[in-house]
Structure formats: C-alpha cells, structure tokens
Amino acid sequence: MSMHAGSPLASRQVLCEKLLSRVQRTLGPRAARALPLSVLGALAAFATPAAHAQDSAPLHVAVSVPPIAWMVDQLAGEHVEITTLVKPGDSPHAYDPTPRQVAELSTVPLYLAIGVPFEQVWLPRLVKNNAEMQVVHLEEGLNTRHFGSGEAHDHGHDETHAHEQEHDEHHGAHEGHEEHHDEHADHEAHEEHHDEHEGHDEHHAELADHQEHGTQHDEDEDLGEADPHLWLDPQRMQIVVERAAEVLEARLPQHASEIDANEQRLLKTLSELDAQIAQTLAPYKGRNFLIFHPSFGYFADRYSLEQHAIEVSGREPTPREMATLITRAKDENIGTIFVSGQFSQTAAKRIASSLEAEVAVLDPLAEDYLDNLKHATEALKAGFELTDSQ
Q1: Which residues have C-beta within 8 Å of that of residue 48, sequence separation ≥ 6?
Q2: Which of 1, 47, 106, 177 makes the best surface tag, with the fewest CB within 10 Å?
C-alpha cells in the first residue's frame, strides 16, 4: 500500500517514528525494539487528536459591545470564541465587569477595545491581572466627536469640527493599512485588497468638501466626554474592520486567507450599506431629530443630520430645560422622540406626551449591525415624514 506525503497514514507513521525515538532514548534501543508497532500506533492515535485539537482551538477574543462582537464573528467565525462584556440593555457609560467576567478575562489572550468609557477605567486593571493579554485599541487615531457641555442645545458644533479633520484621519488610516499590505506582499489576496481601497479616493474628495465649513473649535474649550459610538458610522466601521482583520490574521495565521476573504466581503457590504443609507436620507439633509441620549452623533454627521439630545451632560433635563426642549420641538413640528433601551425613557415619554408625538427606538448596541442601521434609517425617515405631514 503506497502512502503520499501529508496523508493520514503517512502522518501516523511519522508520529510513530518520533515516539519510537523517544522510547529508545528512555528505555534503550533493545527494549524499544521489543515494543509492538501496534502499541506505538495506539499512542499515536491518542496523540494525533490532541495535537489537532490544539491547532484548531478557537482564539478567545474579548470585546466591549455587541456590534464589535458581530464584526469579529463576521471576520473569523468558528475560529474565535467571543466574550462580550456589555450585554443588551446595559449602558457602556455606567458599566462595570462582573467578578465572573473579570475572572474570565484573566485568561483571554486578545482584547479588542473600541473606546467605551468603562474601558478607560478597567483595561489597566485587566491587563495587570493578565499580563499576557494583548489589548488593541481599534479606535486609536480615529477622529472623535465629543458630546460637549452643550450637546442638547448647541447642535452642529462638533459635527462641523469632525468633518474638518476627517479627510486627514481617513487618509492616515489607509496609509497604515498599506504597511499591512507590505508585510504580506506574498499574499495575493492582500494585493487585491489594496486595489479595492483605491476607490476610497472618491471618498476623500467628498470629505474634502466638508472643509468649506470653516467653524473652528477654540482649543481651550471644554469639549466634554468623547463620544465612543464610532461604529454607528459605516465608513469609520470599515476602518475598524481593517484593523481588526489585521490583528486576527496575525493571531490566526493558519486562517489568514479566510479572514482576508471575509474582510473583503464585509467591507463591500458596509460600502453598499453606506450608499443605501445616504440615498435614503438624502432628501432630509440638514434635518434634526430628538433623541434621549446623544448616541447617534456619528451617524448624524455622516448623513448631514443633526441630533438634539434630551439628556444634558449625562443627566435628565431640569424642568426649565425640559420646557425649552418642548418649545423647540413644537416650533420644529417634531413628531417622533427616539429612545434606546440602555437609558431611562421617562423624560422622553413626558416630552412625547406633551407633543402628542410617537416614541421610536434607535439602539446603538444592537448586535445585528446591518439590520440595526437599516432599521435606524427607516425609523428616521418615518420620523421626518411624520413631521412633514403635520
């Protein structure tokens, strides 16, 4: 019976020879030769599944929020085991890991951060508890908008500033990704990936148009808390996908080609989603919507909308602020108040009652990223149409 290299039988023979060599060193050549080959074969049968299991064991990856878990799953699928810290209904602004999660993270080799508030406090502690854990900040270098001390009343200020710098930020991110291609020059799939990104030149030109908005932030101005909801902008999400794919390919080199193919597919899907949303919301450019927590700022920036927040500096509005919001909403004929499950809906429902308006959900943390942004788009469109019909 012939054997070819790489066949199961050939691999078994090689393993038996290795075992025989080890037994010879331990027992001596004569005693080793006395062992039947069937005994070594049985040992090989034991060893082979164990070695295979070790090679194919999924990489344990921790993330903070469900949309990032969705992205990692899209990229690496069965090759990763994902721990998501913030569960549906939790607020990443007031979240603390449970003791059980802290214990689980003590053995996780990779944490993909996105810049949510609790990570600033907990990541240093988690790293101290697990020095072997690699922490990758997917949000690093991306231009960040801020809630600002007047988020609920001074709208558009941060949005303008974000557009002024986004061209440079996006270009810089792609230059970093080109270095990634150089490191994998022998990988043909990456060469195709590089060609695909040439299409971003048109995006750069479009972002340059935003520079005509000449409003500049005072460097001494208190920008307030950074808005962590970067993933709600599909174009920023594409950069996050590229960075995550690079890390996962490095950690799972045996599956790099598969991850790269998934990356290409996901980037294409996100690009198509972005175009679809832009087309749907194009008739409503410049319009504003009223939301309890200002979590959809990046989404609003991307599609030339403005969000008005009911929440002021992380708290519900005072009676005077509530009266101001109601007056403004009446003047603008706002017919829909948007809420999310992570925050109290009391104030939003009170305003909606005063306006005889509807309450609709915009969830920044829904795990099915694509369906969630499609839902948000349709919900905003319906809200604008309701306002126009009044």
Answers
A1: 11, 12, 15
A2: 1
Q: What is the Cα–Cα distance from 200 to 139, expressed in whole angstroms?
A: 19
State the alpha helices, DSSP H only, in 83-156.
Answer: 99-105, 117-129
Cα dist. 54→49, 127, 239, 267 in Å? 9, 25, 32, 31
Residues 379 and 362: their CA atoms lie apart, in Å, by: 8
Grouping H, G, I as helix, E, B as strand and the rest as coil, residue 283 is helix
What backbone phi and psi angles, to 5 degrees, belong to 306?
-130, 130
pLDDT (tens place) for every residue of the chain, 390 residues total: 334 443 344 444 444 454 445 555 545 555 555 555 444 444 444 444 444 444 579 999 999 999 999 999 999 999 999 999 988 767 777 788 889 999 999 999 999 999 998 898 899 999 999 999 999 999 999 988 987 544 543 333 333 333 334 444 444 444 444 444 444 444 444 444 444 444 444 444 444 343 333 333 333 345 567 889 999 999 999 999 999 999 999 999 999 999 999 999 999 999 999 999 999 999 999 999 999 888 999 999 999 999 988 886 667 788 888 888 888 888 888 889 998 766 667 777 888 888 888 889 899 999 899 999 999 999 999 999 988 887
Task: Identify the residue whose tokens are 């709208």.
Answer: 155
Alpha-carbon separation of residue 289 from 277, 293, 342, 376 (angstroms): 16, 12, 19, 12
3-state secondary structure of 301: helix
Name the maximum alpha-carbon separation found in the chain: 98
Pairing of the two strands 358-361 and 134-137: unpaired
Terminal alpha carbon distance of the chain: 84
